[in-house]
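Attaching the record inline, Q. Sequence:
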Amino acid sequence: MKKLIGAVLAMSLTAALLPVSGCSLSRVKLSEKDGVYVYDEQIELRVPVYDRGLSGGTRPEDNYWTRYIQKNFGDRHNIKITFVPVSRSNDANVFKSMIAQNEAPDIIFTYDYPTAMQYFSMNAVSEIDMKKFKKYAPTYYEYTKESLRYGEIDGAQFFFTATRPDFDSYVTLIRTDWLDKCGLDMPKTPEEYRDMLRAFLANGCGGADTVPATYTPGDANYGGYRFREYPMDEEEKAMYSDISVCPFTYEPVRRAH
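Structure, as predicted:
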Protein backbone atom coordinates (compact mmCIF):
# COMPACT_ATOMS: atom_id res chain seq x y z
CA MET A 1 0.00 0.00 0.00
CA LYS A 2 1.19 3.48 -0.79
CA LYS A 3 2.06 5.30 2.42
CA LEU A 4 1.36 8.96 3.04
CA ILE A 5 3.98 11.53 3.95
CA GLY A 6 1.97 12.12 7.09
CA ALA A 7 -1.53 12.73 8.25
CA VAL A 8 -1.64 16.30 9.41
CA LEU A 9 -4.06 17.71 11.90
CA ALA A 10 -4.17 20.75 9.65
CA MET A 11 -2.44 21.10 6.30
CA SER A 12 0.87 22.78 5.56
CA LEU A 13 2.62 22.38 2.25
CA THR A 14 5.99 22.88 3.94
CA ALA A 15 6.09 19.16 4.68
CA ALA A 16 6.17 18.46 0.96
CA LEU A 17 9.94 18.76 1.07
CA LEU A 18 10.27 15.68 3.28
CA PRO A 19 11.53 12.70 1.25
CA VAL A 20 9.68 9.55 2.24
CA SER A 21 11.26 6.18 2.89
CA GLY A 22 9.84 3.49 0.63
CA CYS A 23 8.31 6.10 -1.66
CA SER A 24 9.41 7.21 -5.12
CA LEU A 25 10.37 10.60 -3.62
CA SER A 26 13.25 8.96 -1.78
CA ARG A 27 14.90 8.16 -5.12
CA VAL A 28 14.81 11.75 -6.39
CA LYS A 29 17.84 13.86 -5.57
CA LEU A 30 17.29 17.11 -3.70
CA SER A 31 19.86 19.88 -4.28
CA GLU A 32 20.35 23.29 -2.77
CA LYS A 33 20.43 26.23 -5.16
CA ASP A 34 20.80 29.77 -3.81
CA GLY A 35 19.50 28.68 -0.42
CA VAL A 36 16.46 26.90 -1.89
CA TYR A 37 16.09 23.12 -1.98
CA VAL A 38 15.09 21.96 -5.46
CA TYR A 39 14.37 18.47 -6.79
CA ASP A 40 16.67 17.59 -9.69
CA GLU A 41 13.75 15.87 -11.40
CA GLN A 42 10.24 17.24 -11.16
CA ILE A 43 8.07 15.30 -8.75
CA GLU A 44 4.31 15.32 -8.32
CA LEU A 45 2.78 16.07 -4.94
CA ARG A 46 -0.90 15.25 -4.52
CA VAL A 47 -2.55 17.40 -1.88
CA PRO A 48 -6.24 17.33 -0.88
CA VAL A 49 -8.38 20.43 -0.94
CA TYR A 50 -11.87 20.70 0.49
CA ASP A 51 -14.78 20.73 -1.93
CA ARG A 52 -17.61 22.47 -0.08
CA GLY A 53 -20.10 22.02 -2.90
CA LEU A 54 -20.55 25.76 -3.49
CA SER A 55 -22.15 26.60 -6.82
CA GLY A 56 -21.11 29.46 -9.05
CA GLY A 57 -17.55 29.68 -7.79
CA THR A 58 -14.18 28.50 -9.01
CA ARG A 59 -13.16 24.87 -8.86
CA PRO A 60 -11.46 23.96 -5.58
CA GLU A 61 -8.63 22.26 -7.45
CA ASP A 62 -8.03 25.13 -9.92
CA ASN A 63 -8.33 28.71 -8.76
CA TYR A 64 -6.30 31.78 -7.87
CA TRP A 65 -4.91 30.22 -4.68
CA THR A 66 -3.98 26.85 -6.16
CA ARG A 67 -2.16 28.62 -8.97
CA TYR A 68 -0.48 30.91 -6.43
CA ILE A 69 0.76 27.89 -4.47
CA GLN A 70 2.03 26.22 -7.63
CA LYS A 71 3.88 29.35 -8.74
CA ASN A 72 5.34 30.36 -5.39
CA PHE A 73 5.95 26.94 -3.89
CA GLY A 74 5.76 24.23 -6.52
CA ASP A 75 7.74 25.96 -9.27
CA ARG A 76 10.31 27.09 -6.74
CA HIS A 77 11.09 23.53 -5.67
CA ASN A 78 10.41 21.77 -9.01
CA ILE A 79 7.22 20.19 -7.72
CA LYS A 80 4.04 19.72 -9.71
CA ILE A 81 1.22 20.07 -7.22
CA THR A 82 -2.00 18.23 -7.98
CA PHE A 83 -4.92 19.30 -5.84
CA VAL A 84 -7.38 16.52 -5.10
CA PRO A 85 -10.96 17.64 -4.29
CA VAL A 86 -12.38 15.99 -1.17
CA SER A 87 -15.92 16.48 0.10
CA ARG A 88 -15.77 18.58 3.26
CA SER A 89 -18.91 16.99 4.68
CA ASN A 90 -17.61 13.46 4.27
CA ASP A 91 -13.84 13.83 4.21
CA ALA A 92 -12.96 11.05 6.66
CA ASN A 93 -14.86 8.41 4.69
CA VAL A 94 -13.46 9.71 1.39
CA PHE A 95 -9.90 9.49 2.71
CA LYS A 96 -10.48 5.98 4.07
CA SER A 97 -11.84 4.88 0.70
CA MET A 98 -8.87 6.44 -1.09
CA ILE A 99 -6.46 4.69 1.27
CA ALA A 100 -8.18 1.33 0.74
CA GLN A 101 -7.93 1.77 -3.05
CA ASN A 102 -4.32 2.97 -2.88
CA GLU A 103 -5.39 6.33 -4.33
CA ALA A 104 -4.83 8.60 -1.34
CA PRO A 105 -3.07 11.96 -1.79
CA ASP A 106 0.50 12.24 -0.51
CA ILE A 107 -0.67 14.41 2.38
CA ILE A 108 -3.96 14.16 4.20
CA PHE A 109 -5.35 16.22 7.02
CA THR A 110 -8.00 16.01 9.67
CA TYR A 111 -9.28 18.04 12.58
CA ASP A 112 -9.99 14.90 14.57
CA TYR A 113 -7.27 12.94 16.39
CA PRO A 114 -9.20 9.63 16.54
CA THR A 115 -9.59 9.83 12.76
CA ALA A 116 -5.85 10.38 12.37
CA MET A 117 -5.28 7.28 14.47
CA GLN A 118 -7.60 5.32 12.18
CA TYR A 119 -5.38 6.28 9.24
CA PHE A 120 -2.40 5.10 11.28
CA SER A 121 -4.12 1.79 12.10
CA MET A 122 -4.69 1.27 8.37
CA ASN A 123 -0.88 1.29 7.95
CA ALA A 124 -1.23 4.25 5.65
CA VAL A 125 1.09 6.77 7.34
CA SER A 126 4.88 6.89 7.10
CA GLU A 127 7.09 7.95 9.97
CA ILE A 128 8.43 11.47 9.55
CA ASP A 129 12.21 11.84 9.57
CA MET A 130 12.60 14.72 12.00
CA LYS A 131 16.21 15.43 10.99
CA LYS A 132 15.02 16.07 7.45
CA PHE A 133 11.99 17.97 8.74
CA LYS A 134 14.24 20.37 10.65
CA LYS A 135 16.64 20.69 7.72
CA TYR A 136 14.16 21.26 4.90
CA ALA A 137 11.38 23.04 6.81
CA PRO A 138 13.12 24.95 9.64
CA THR A 139 10.59 27.76 9.78
CA TYR A 140 7.64 25.41 9.98
CA TYR A 141 9.45 23.28 12.56
CA GLU A 142 10.02 26.30 14.82
CA TYR A 143 6.40 27.33 14.37
CA THR A 144 5.00 23.93 15.36
CA LYS A 145 7.65 22.39 17.65
CA GLU A 146 5.60 22.99 20.81
CA SER A 147 2.74 20.88 19.45
CA LEU A 148 4.70 18.16 17.65
CA ARG A 149 4.42 15.86 20.67
CA TYR A 150 0.75 15.38 19.84
CA GLY A 151 1.79 13.65 16.63
CA GLU A 152 4.08 11.12 18.27
CA ILE A 153 3.27 7.42 18.59
CA ASP A 154 5.61 5.28 20.70
CA GLY A 155 8.29 7.92 20.44
CA ALA A 156 8.13 8.24 16.65
CA GLN A 157 6.68 11.20 14.71
CA PHE A 158 3.81 10.22 12.41
CA PHE A 159 1.73 13.41 12.36
CA PHE A 160 2.44 17.08 12.59
CA THR A 161 0.11 19.85 13.56
CA ALA A 162 -0.61 23.29 12.19
CA THR A 163 -1.07 26.17 14.60
CA ARG A 164 -3.78 28.53 13.45
CA PRO A 165 -3.44 32.29 13.93
CA ASP A 166 -6.08 33.69 16.25
CA PHE A 167 -8.36 35.24 13.63
CA ASP A 168 -11.58 33.53 14.70
CA SER A 169 -13.93 32.37 11.97
CA TYR A 170 -14.90 35.51 10.09
CA VAL A 171 -13.07 38.79 9.69
CA THR A 172 -13.48 41.84 7.48
CA LEU A 173 -10.61 42.41 5.05
CA ILE A 174 -10.30 45.76 3.27
CA ARG A 175 -8.04 46.48 0.30
CA THR A 176 -5.83 49.40 1.27
CA ASP A 177 -4.88 50.03 -2.37
CA TRP A 178 -8.56 50.69 -3.08
CA LEU A 179 -8.68 53.04 -0.10
CA ASP A 180 -5.69 54.92 -1.53
CA LYS A 181 -7.34 55.10 -4.96
CA CYS A 182 -10.43 56.68 -3.38
CA GLY A 183 -8.44 58.94 -1.04
CA LEU A 184 -10.03 57.36 2.02
CA ASP A 185 -8.79 56.35 5.45
CA MET A 186 -9.64 53.06 7.11
CA PRO A 187 -13.31 53.25 8.16
CA LYS A 188 -14.01 53.37 11.88
CA THR A 189 -17.81 53.29 11.93
CA PRO A 190 -20.51 51.36 10.05
CA GLU A 191 -21.44 54.58 8.25
CA GLU A 192 -17.87 55.12 7.07
CA TYR A 193 -17.71 51.48 6.00
CA ARG A 194 -20.83 51.83 3.83
CA ASP A 195 -19.53 55.11 2.36
CA MET A 196 -16.28 53.32 1.54
CA LEU A 197 -18.14 50.58 -0.36
CA ARG A 198 -20.06 53.19 -2.36
CA ALA A 199 -16.75 54.89 -3.23
CA PHE A 200 -15.22 51.57 -4.32
CA LEU A 201 -18.16 51.06 -6.67
CA ALA A 202 -18.25 54.62 -7.97
CA ASN A 203 -14.53 54.65 -8.72
CA GLY A 204 -14.54 51.23 -10.35
CA CYS A 205 -11.66 50.05 -8.17
CA GLY A 206 -12.00 46.52 -9.51
CA GLY A 207 -12.83 47.49 -13.06
CA ALA A 208 -16.15 47.88 -14.83
CA ASP A 209 -17.71 45.01 -12.90
CA THR A 210 -16.44 46.06 -9.47
CA VAL A 211 -17.93 44.23 -6.50
CA PRO A 212 -17.16 46.46 -3.51
CA ALA A 213 -17.63 43.70 -0.91
CA THR A 214 -18.24 39.99 -0.74
CA TYR A 215 -20.02 38.24 2.06
CA THR A 216 -20.30 34.61 2.97
CA PRO A 217 -23.41 33.97 5.03
CA GLY A 218 -22.59 31.92 8.08
CA ASP A 219 -24.60 30.52 10.91
CA ALA A 220 -25.97 32.96 13.47
CA ASN A 221 -23.13 32.12 15.84
CA TYR A 222 -20.62 33.95 13.60
CA GLY A 223 -22.77 36.99 13.01
CA GLY A 224 -20.78 39.32 15.25
CA TYR A 225 -17.26 38.32 14.31
CA ARG A 226 -16.86 40.73 11.42
CA PHE A 227 -17.69 43.76 13.58
CA ARG A 228 -15.08 43.16 16.26
CA GLU A 229 -12.11 45.35 17.00
CA TYR A 230 -8.70 43.78 16.48
CA PRO A 231 -6.85 42.85 18.57
CA MET A 232 -9.87 41.95 20.68
CA ASP A 233 -10.04 42.45 24.42
CA GLU A 234 -9.61 39.03 26.04
CA GLU A 235 -12.55 39.50 28.42
CA GLU A 236 -14.85 40.60 25.60
CA LYS A 237 -13.68 37.70 23.49
CA ALA A 238 -14.59 35.26 26.24
CA MET A 239 -17.98 36.88 26.73
CA TYR A 240 -19.03 37.30 23.09
CA SER A 241 -17.60 34.27 21.30
CA ASP A 242 -20.48 31.90 21.90
CA ILE A 243 -20.57 29.30 19.14
CA SER A 244 -24.35 29.09 19.04
CA VAL A 245 -25.73 32.59 19.70
CA CYS A 246 -25.01 35.84 17.88
CA PRO A 247 -24.01 38.50 20.47
CA PHE A 248 -26.61 41.14 19.58
CA THR A 249 -26.00 42.91 22.91
CA TYR A 250 -22.30 43.33 22.11
CA GLU A 251 -21.73 47.02 21.36
CA PRO A 252 -19.89 46.65 18.01
CA VAL A 253 -22.66 44.36 16.73
CA ARG A 254 -25.40 46.62 18.09
CA ARG A 255 -23.90 49.65 16.32
CA ALA A 256 -23.55 47.79 13.04
CA HIS A 257 -27.16 46.67 13.04
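Confidence is low (pLDDT under 50) at residues 9-23. The beta strands are 6-8, 30-33, 36-39, 43-51, 79-87, 107-109, 152-153, 156-157, 159-160.

More tomorrow.
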